[in-house]
Structures are given as structure tokens and as C-alpha cells.
Amino acid sequence: MALVTGRMRHIERELATTAMARPTVILDSVGSTNRWLKEAWVQGEARHGTAVWADEQTEGRGRLGRAWESPPGKNIYTSVLWEPPRERLSGVLSLVAGVAVSRAVREHTGGDARMKWPNDGVIRGRKFCGILVEAGVDPSPWAVVGIGINVLGQVGAAYPNAVTLQECVASPVSREDLWLELMAQLETAYVAWLGEGDDWAVQAWTQHNATLGHMVRVEKPGQDIWVGRAESVAPDGGLWVANAERREKVISGEVSLRLADGGYAPESD
């Protein structure tokens, strides 16, 4: 049973934003917030800033089609529509969203929230957030930014590499307060990116990253797994990874903060 609170139902009235999450649609349950918002966009029922927040997702997913467990009453499952200029559609949008997530969690909880390239939020080395950006140009340029954040309760032993914010911070965590802060940070980050360019997004993301300087494992379908050190983020959002034999900009695929044998990579010096 969905556990939408009265405050969540009327959360839009508490927003401090100009465009972001105006309007906001609150749903008890939905298959996918990203899919719901894309369909609303196609039907002309969404505009820049429109947000949807569901108490439960029954078909949530992350990158590479992975399922995202989305039980009711505990977490944030939300998507926001952006309408960027056509020439600005790129992988940098995930970085912009990651900057907003890191800043929102830090502001609300004081926790050391960081981003693992390209779209995972981590705290104390464990995943608390996933970001999925989907974009297109029909009928005009659009991007749907989906964000899932583990907020309350415990993840459980079945997911040893995941964590909730409640497990990581000493202060109380409010889903509603965190969502409001997230919308404010999304607006701030989007406006800064529009005005200052992709370099701003790369630099801001780098300040809160959990990837650069670490050894990572790179996996791409149909290719051999290889290990290298994550060096830097390119202007288009790609990740430069290098070892003694090769240096490559990774645009797609899986980049894991662990070695090829499955163990976690050591901390960088």
C-alpha cells in the first residue's frame, strides 16, 4: 500500500524554485516516473520544469536496463523535464543532475555525498542514489532526469553495496525536505550550466566525485574487461581511463570502482 503523506501531496506549495517542479504531479504508484513524464511530454501535458514524484515504482530501472527496487513509503522516486537547447544535449546532463544530488544531500544531511561516474550517488563507499537521463529532439529538444534516492529504513543484506541515507547520517532525514532541496539544487545547477557551459558542469561534478584517481574496471558488451585509473572527465561527459597499455575515453558501458577479480579497488594515494 502506498504511503503518500499529506505534506507530500501538497509539496508544491513549499517550493522555493522559479520553474523547477512547477507543476509537480504526485502519484501513489507508477510503473516508472521517467516513462510517465515522457508520455506526458509527448501528449503536450508537460513543460520545462514539470516534475513527477511517486511514492512507489513498480517497474523502476536504472542504467543498462537494471531493475531499481522501489518500495513505498521510504524513498524518493522522481523525474523532472528539462528543455535544453538542441546543441546542448549530451552526457553532461547526467553530471549536472549529479551535482544537484550531491549538493542537496550534503545540505540536508551533512553527509559526504559523492558521485561515481556517470550517475551513481555514493556515501561511505555505498550507493544511495541512481540517476537516469533520457533525452531526444522530437518534437523539440527534451531531457527527462530520473532520480532515485534511498532515504529511510535499511537496504538489507541482499544489497551489500547499497545504503540508505538514514543508515549513514546522525540527523533525522525527511523525504519531503530532501526533495524540496533537490528541486532547488536542480534549478540552480541547470541555470548555472546554461549560463556557464559544460566546463562548469565538469568542474562542479569533479569537486564531489568518487571516481577520479581510483582504479576502475571497464566493461563493454562484446569487449574484454580491462582495468585502469580514472584520470579525468572530458568536456562531453566521457571518462578518461588509462593504464600502461591504453588510454580511452569511456562514453558508455559499466565503470566499477573495483578490480577485475571483483574486489574493490584500493583508495587512491
Question: What do you see in this structure?
Answer:
With 269 residues, the chain is of the alpha+beta class. It folds into 2 domains: 6-207, Bira Bifunctional Protein, Domain 2 (BirA Bifunctional Protein, domain 2, 2-Layer Sandwich); 215-256, SH3 type barrels. It has helices at residues 6-9, 33-42, 92-109, 165-168, 175-196, 198-207, and strands at residues 24-27, 51-54, 76-82, 114-116, 120-123, 126-136, 142-149, 215-219, 226-233, 239-242, 247-250, 254-256. The strands form 2 sheets. A 7-stranded mixed sheet has the order 1-2-3-7-6-5-4, sandwiched between helices. Strands 11-10-9-8-12 form a 5-stranded antiparallel sheet, with no helix packed on it. Helix 5 crosses helix 6. The radius of gyration is 18 Å and the shape is globular. The protein starts with 5 loop residues before the first helix and ends in a 13-residue tail after the last strand. Mean pLDDT is 90; it is low at 264-269.
Topology, element by element:
Layout: H1 6-9, E1 24-27, H2 33-42, E2 51-54, E3 76-82, H3 92-109, E4 114-116, E5 120-123, E6 126-136, E7 142-149, H4 165-168, H5 175-196, H6 198-207, E8 215-219, E9 226-233, E10 239-242, E11 247-250, E12 254-256
Parallel strand pairs: 1-2
Antiparallel strand pairs: 2-3, 3-7, 4-5, 5-6, 6-7, 8-9, 8-12, 9-10, 10-11
Helix pairs in contact: 3-5, 3-6, 5-6
